[in-house]
Design brief:
The complex is a heterodimer. Chain A is an all-alpha fold. Helix content of chain A is 78%, strand content 2%. Chain A is elongated, with a radius of gyration of 18 Å. Among the domains of chain B are: 81 residues, Up-down Bundle (Four Helix Bundle (Hemerythrin (Met), subunit A)); 40 residues. The chains are: A mainly alpha, B mainly alpha. The interface between A and B is large, with 72 and 88 residues.
């Protein structure tokens, strides 16, 4: 008996907090952590709409669940590749600060 | 106020509070530990949404795998960026202002929606039928078998790519 709007507002606030971290942090690993927060907020939204849609349909809607599963899977792949990149950069340049990785700067 | 609503409010307050700590703490290791609290809160929100499968997946994949490899990466790179250093950009105040404006516009736009004020009732589907339908849909050729197989392909590519990127090429087959 929880209104749909509560979930949407919590997800919007969580997304904004994650966006603040992703833009303002210097450490590349902290940026990845903030992106995880944003992906979690998106998943709350997807599953809240899935619940709403299933309750109006009267049976389980599969599209929403598959969408949420794909988001979780993409997040796992993104973290694995992102951390591998950060470790590789750390080996070569001895830094994890995103703004110091500027080999392509003109 | 029903008991469920009180649980929801408590969980969401803890989740958002720990999320704010995640993005603002000076010590990056502590931020990663608070991330686990946030992920746990999101898992409880999934339980309240009756998506029990996703609550379990959230705990297994996010807390069990993603948070752990994030902590590993932090410990591997810790001596480079000391905890006393300032962890945010010079322009973090401007970013905070922009994000606040974004949040206000976002929630305002959401509240224009026709279904914004609708109430979520418990689903009529009994027991674990949700998960049964989900599993059958994922293996149904007319349903979601193709995205399911593509997901496994993407995870395999991420695995191989991660090993290749993190491999020490100069050392070769060092021990």
């Amino acid at each position: 008996m929880i209104p749909l709007s509560w979930y949407l507002i919590v997800a919007a606030v969580l997304f904004s907090v994650g966006m603040f971290g992703a833009i303002s942090r210097k450490n590349a690993i902290a940026i990845l952590i903030s992106i995880e927060l944003m992906l979690n907020a998106v998943n709350i939204n997807i599953l809240a709409f899935w619940h709403y849609h299933s309750q109006t349909l009267g049976y389980t809607d599969l599209h929403g669940m598959v969408f949420a599963a794909i988001v979780i899977m993409a997040a796992a792949a993104e973290v694995a590749i992102g951390l591998a990149l950060i470790i590789a950069v750390y080996r070569q340049r001895k830094t994890v600060v995103a703004s110091e990785v500027n080999a392509l700067k003109g | 106020m029903t008991p469920l609503q009180i649980v929801f409010l408590l969980v969401s307050i803890v989740t958002i509070f720990s999320a704010i700590l995640v993005v603002s703490l000076q010590k990056i290791f502590h931020a990663a530990l608070w991330l686990i609290v946030t992920l746990m809160g999101v898992a409880i929100l999934f339980v309240l949404l009756e998506a029990s499968f996703f609550a379990a997946v959230q705990i297994l994949v996010y807390i069990g795998a993603i948070a752990i490899i994030l902590i590993f990466a932090i410990m591997l790179t810790r001596n480079i960026m000391s905890d006393e250093e300032i962890q945010s950009n010079r322009s973090w105040g401007l970013v905070l202002l922009l994000v606040l404006v974004f949040a206000v516009i976002f929630i305002n736009q959401l509240s224009q929606s026709a279904i914004f004020n609708s109430i979520l009732y418990p689903l009529e589907v009994q027991g674990q039928d949700n998960i049964m339908a989900f599993g059958q849909g994922l293996l149904d050729p007319a349903g979601f078998a193709l995205p399911f197989e593509l997901a496994s392909l993407l995870l395999l590519a991420a695995l191989v790519g991660g090993v290749y990127l993190a491999m020490d090429k100069k050392g070769g087959e060092a021990k």
